[in-house]
Amino acid sequence: MANPAIGTPRYLSATNGILPEATGQAISYIRRPDKFKVNQYTQLIESPGTIGIYYIIDRDTPARFVNDAESAWEDGGERPVTNANGLVFAEANFTTLRRNYATMLGNQAIAMGSKGWKVMEHHVGSLVQQEITARTNRVCSLIDTAANWGNNTADANTLNNGAGTWDLASDDPASANYNAIKRSLMEAVRRITLATNATVGFNDLQLVISPGLAESMGNSAEIHNYLRNGPYSRPRLESKEDYVNDRWGLPATLYGLPLVVEDTVKVTDRPAAGGGTGASASSNRVFAKADKTAVILSRPGSLDGEYGAPSFSTVQVYWHEYLAAVYTFQDQKNARTELHVTSQYVEILAAPESGFCITNATA
Fold this sequence. Notes:
Layout: H1 38-41, E1 43-46, E2 51-57, E3 89-95, E4 97-106, H2 107-113, H3 119-144, E5 153-155, H4 156-159, H5 180-195, E6 205-209, H6 211-218, H7 221-229, H8 233-238, E7 253-254, E8 257-261, E9 265-267, E10 285-287, E11 294-298, E12 304-305, E13 315-319, E14 325-331, E15 336-349, E16 356-359
Parallel strand pairs: 1-12, 1-13, 5-16, 6-8
Antiparallel strand pairs: 2-3, 4-15, 6-11, 7-8, 9-10, 11-16, 13-15, 14-15
């Protein structure tokens, strides 16, 4: 039986845009922009133009040591000089793409909304969420694609030398799955250290996983024991602080790596003809981050990077002019208001050597 208190879902349009008198309460599932995780593991860089260039600088020459004799300078001899120490560099181009998320409201509906739920504010919030959801989805697709990572990708079972997937990870030294998670992570970090000549430090890295993988990890014996016997158990018993990863049975930091559970949700179908609340809401609702892939990313420094400056951030988002910019336009002739949220950016895996894509982390 349908809930008689819930009216028929409707859009604010030319035929049904007038709201009745309301109590002022609104049930909304619009997510605040600061709750999205994408800004924790990417760096935003403002580009002066729609098309730009960034440079990939030789990472081998600064760490090169073949033999000590090449640099030896005996008394009375000529000072050693060579042309082999010049830095090689490559240019990489990018082109930003402008996107716009919009809707239109009747001015009478907006006016009536001032006495009930905030019509314009909720629609703007919805458009902003669409923009950040789309950006998160693009970044997740970028980092979840193993082909984008060059040599910095491998299966979890390869990294942990056959200890298996993370859902099977054990705390028993006699088990074949002993410390499967830790061994995968530490080997990936070791390879990042080698690939960057130790330029990217351990403190620059973080681990990004999906809610599905988080749940599998949290149910494993390895993580259960890690929390029970580690430095995290007592604070959770004695403090009322909201630990961000408690809902997944995970600590905020795992083996020294800050742990980000990317929980952005996307709805992948068009709105239903009868509305989209309650039982008629979409069933095509999934998390943006893939479950089988865990990604270690570097994001040193602040969220905002400087164009043209050296950066070891694995994922960089170059944006020009607009980044979730909100615009309203009055259509006086038709007595309506257009709402727009505009962004212009491109997401780039600029420094794959500073991160690692762990594939097939769970069965």
